[in-house]
Amino acid sequence: MSRFDLDREELALLLEDEPSYRLEQLARGLYRELKEPAEMTTLPAGLRRRLQEESRLSLGLRLVAESAADGGATVKWLFEAGDGARVETVLMAYEKRTTVCVSSQAGCAMGCSFCATGQLGFARHLGRGEIVEQVARAARQAAGSGFARLSNIVFMGMGEPLANYEAVLSAVRMLNGELAIGARSMTISTVGIVPGIRRLAGEGIQVNLAVSLHAANDSLRDRLVPINRRYRLADLMAACHDYCERTGRRISFEWALISGVNDRAGDALELSGLATELGAHVNLIPLNPTPGYGVPGSPPPQVARFARLLQERGVNVTVRETRGRENGAACGQLAAGLGPGRLRQGLAVSPA
Fold first, then answer.
1. Which of 44, 223, 305, 338 has its C-alpha lying 20 to 30 A from 313's C-alpha?
2. Is residue 112 among the annotated active site residues?
3. What is the pTM of this model?
């Protein structure tokens, strides 16, 4: 249980004997100013003491480990929930913005072989409070470290966000409302859960959608992203088109470049066809090394050639800057330092 599981009505029950304006003071202090009750000097001292002792206002995640990379600009945290479930969160500070990459599940059931989390299997879904708490902790760290204000949230950590749809959507609404982070500053990543994409398109929330594509034909994608065997590329592209039409948001395709696997000229040609049809942006990610997957990422010259081939076909392309590789915080590496039994201490991990 995390304080971020409480909504306004539940907070109000803690303030039954207080003037009504105390609710706004408490909510602002907890959610927007990211303070502990004891730090909220707008509240009377007696009320502060009482709220500080209220278990429902405690944090739900215990910090187990912290490591930094990139001269301190990338920080990875390992958190543990009360039941022993463990997740990783990454804060990335840039010159004018700060981004947090949050987890939505402990582990992942999607089974993508080149992803460290996918290699470990699935433990459980995270609740709304556990998701929002990752953001709140990151925002407080950014403010205390002199970084730019936390401005972007990417649901690209451990787990498949659209497989934990209700909690992720509830977290997005809370982040948008209580923490005042714009929906357009949030990106939900998915390996291609078609029903989830279609459902998200109808929510009226203009979050960004990033599809972890990695292959532009069914044969190769079946090997790299096993969920493709359930939701074929044609169905996925139709759902993406629907999302663009209904939200007015441009979709991004994530493409982890794997040497000799999906970095050839033919792969670029197939990808350019899908991207131009949707007007999608393509993020190229040189594959980061993970235990259990022996094929290396594409070398820099091949990455540059692949990007150029896409650009020549009119595709908007970005080569993602590698952050956090030295401490296992780079894309695809989350949980690389955990053995299967440590995703959920004392409990078996479900197979992928």
1. 223
2. no
3. 0.90
